[in-house]
Amino acid sequence: MEMSLFLVQLLNGIQYGLLLFLVASGLTLVFGVMGILNLAHGSMYMIGAYLVYYFAAMTDSFWLAVVIACSIAMVIGVIIERFLIVHLYKRDHLDQVLLTVGLIFIFNAAQSFIWGNDPLGVDVPELLSSSIQITDIVEYPVYRLFLSVLCVGIAIGMYYVINNTKLGMMIRAGESNREMVENLGVNIGTLFTVVFAVGVTLSALAGIVSAPVVSLVPGMGERVLISCFVVVVIGGMGSIKGAFVAALLVGIVDTFASVLLPGMSSMTIYLLMALILIFKPQGLFKS
Amino acid sequence: MSECILQAENLSKHWGGLKALNEFNIKFYDKSLHSIVGPNGAGKSTMLNILCGTYPATKGVILYRGENITGLKSHQFCRKGIGRSFQKTNIFKDATCLENCCIAAQQRVGSSFNMFKSKHSSKHVTAIAEDALEQVGLLKQANTKASAISYGEQRQLEIAMVLATDPQVLLLDEPMAGMGHEESLIIIDLLKSLKKRYCIVLVEHDMDAVFELSDLMTVMVDGQHLITDVVDNIRANPLVQEAYLGNDDEVF
Amino acid sequence: MSVFSSKAEKVFIFAFFFIALGIPLFFNENTFYVNKISTMLILSIFVMSLDYLVGRTGLITLGHAMFYGLGGYLFAIMIPEYEVVNFWLYTFYVMAASGVIALIVGFIVLRTSGIYMIMITLALAQMTFYFFADSTEYGGLDGLFIYLKPETSIFGLNFLDLDNENHFYYLCLLSLFNCYVFCKVSLHSRFGRVIDAIKENPERATALGYNIFHFRLVSYVLSSSLAAYAGYLFSLQYGFVNPTMMSWEVSASALVMAILGGLGTIFGAILGVFVYESLHYGIEHMTQYWMFWMGSLIILMVLLLKSGIAGLIEQLVGGKRK
């Protein structure tokens, strides 16, 4: 492989990995603090992408659409937590699986009802529609660079919030000991609502910002969810640091596998996961 | 003194930087009751959990009848003959008392992978289970669900299940925890009769019971071995008074 | 001691098999319904195998459809082209091969538990899905076709013609009956005693000297082989296999059916399948957005109906014996 091509693939891999991190961090945050495995997490990714498509067409502004879509996603998150997830805290894993599978069904039906099943696309915003020339024939789109920078920014922001703010302190305390948080006088109900809403918004945001570089198809949420599982399993459930490292690993491995091993590219990350599980059943960064 | 069955040499357990157990040496003898006491957090439960294979030791060896069993898996300790009871009642609540003991007895009898013969077909398993229940005085409750008997009876069932696995060594983790006086007396009588036949290692907070039952006592503080001696010497030992009982006289 | 764990089960099982025996006579020449019910019988085997694993062994999987699909694929891949093979021989081959695969997969999956196992089973099932969906050799998304149905002679006797819908129906019914009997017998055995113990309290079972990994692995292999058998029957009925059979939706709906019927009851699997599939069929006739109603139904079920239909019937018919 040529150097410039290698560089482009590497950038693609990192960008994909960072997007995966955005989704996976929400999943792992919700699990870490609330002990809930939200299978409908991928559906929020899909909903985000379709919402931004809808509002970009309506308002003619991608950026406005991003804001609206994010807000709607957050509201959906609050509603789901308040009305449904709240019943699950004392139930077992199976009930979590079922209820969130039910949500996937509903989201998928809504998507197919509102937007139909044909592939849709979102235009790259004009501001970022140019490309950077790497060599004479190889170029790299600015929007993808923007995606990577945005994700890194969010990762740094999360790191700051978790380590330096009161909310972050409560999150960390919630991860290690839920009862302790309640004894600290924190309203655990509110904390859970906030964490859940933030978690699903992260997933929706990933869908929103990646909408211009992917095609919007039914089932896109489940595909992301599964890749996300691979990330979380490799990184260690509940660990945001683990999610970051594993997401990059998965992103890069997956991107290069599709170039180097076209026949079995879709299997590579699962084989990677199986391999890591054999040696580290709890993932790389056990929380 | 009778034969030494179970022995730990330089046993250590580190949790990150914390040394829960540090270079511990101890010997347990057959047909005697050896109790381990110490303040909370002294590492008693940690040691018990290592001796029955639940936690792997960081360092050191466990010898069972002279054989090194340190690296064995958790379930293999029971098969060797080291049975344990739990501090928090840990039984099969949905099953009857008899079934609880049958599960234990079947492990010893074997053929647990037989899928075609009814579980009730073996008279041998049932006989062992009934015998275990009889030893702890629960035979009359054999067909009652384990969740329906009293707390004290559940503690007795806990011991019966260990007996049904045909152990040589009994590791008992606070068998009297949370019990009233009357119920404790039942367990004390039970342990008195059991120690004639088994090597019993007892971790217990009820000091009256410990002094009444023990042949040997070990006092530990902060993961360290302080002293092992017969009951009367422990009672009189100034080191023990100072290190462990100094701030908590009323236990005597 | 009765083989049935409740009066409700006894009543249901007798009624179900009695009615089921008469179905082809009742529908006479209308093979549409006979075929439809054959499929439900096959699904019942699949869901029952899942209940064995989830409801009785206590291992939650979201990837069981992987073995359902593999059953079909293994058969389609193993048969020589344009040659009629023996049904019983290939039943053995398919179940043995899927058993070996389950042994390997189980070895990885069972190193974990709980939430991890849910994610890993799902991920591995998706891996298998993409493996077949992307392969040109195995027909990609179109899958593989099975042109010739196997013959069923045993010791020179041949009394089943798989091309005949009614014959195939009775084969499915017999298979379901055998599956039910196997599940009940093995769960009532010494093995079942340990399985129940491990589900209720794995820590204690280990302390009593059981290697819980081995028992879980055996249960996983058995359950997976049964699922593969169901997939094999399905591929015979429709004459093809494709990756959709092992999509995550199949695993998830099977789980819903098992829970709808009453988790851990074994016979509830049949109930769950018939109720779910009837609803599916009914709703799909009224609206193309059946998934919306199904999703709402599942959520309501989680919030309101904790012990499934079997639990409901048991409350109505009377006391559990177990």
UniProtKB/TrEMBL annotation, chain A:
GO biological process: amino acid transport
Recorded coiled-coil stretches: none
Subcellular location: Cell inner membrane
InterPro entries reported in the protein's UniProt record: ABC_transp_permease, BCAA_transport_permease
GO molecular function terms attached to this record: transmembrane transporter activity
Protein family according to the UniProt entry: Belongs to the binding-protein-dependent transport system permease family. LivHM subfamily.
UniProt-recorded name of the protein: ABC transporter permease
UniProtKB/TrEMBL annotation, chain B:
PROSITE patterns per the UniProt record, alphabetical: ABC_TRANSPORTER_2
GO cellular component: plasma membrane
Pfam families: ABC_tran
Alphabetical list of InterPro entries matching this protein: AAA+_ATPase (IPR003593), ABC_AA/LPS_Transport (IPR051120), ABC_transporter-like_ATP-bd (IPR003439), P-loop_NTPase (IPR027417)
Organism domain of life: Bacteria
Keyword Transport (UniProt): yes
Alphabetically ordered keywords of this record: ATP-binding, Nucleotide-binding, Transport
Protein name (database record): ABC transporter family protein
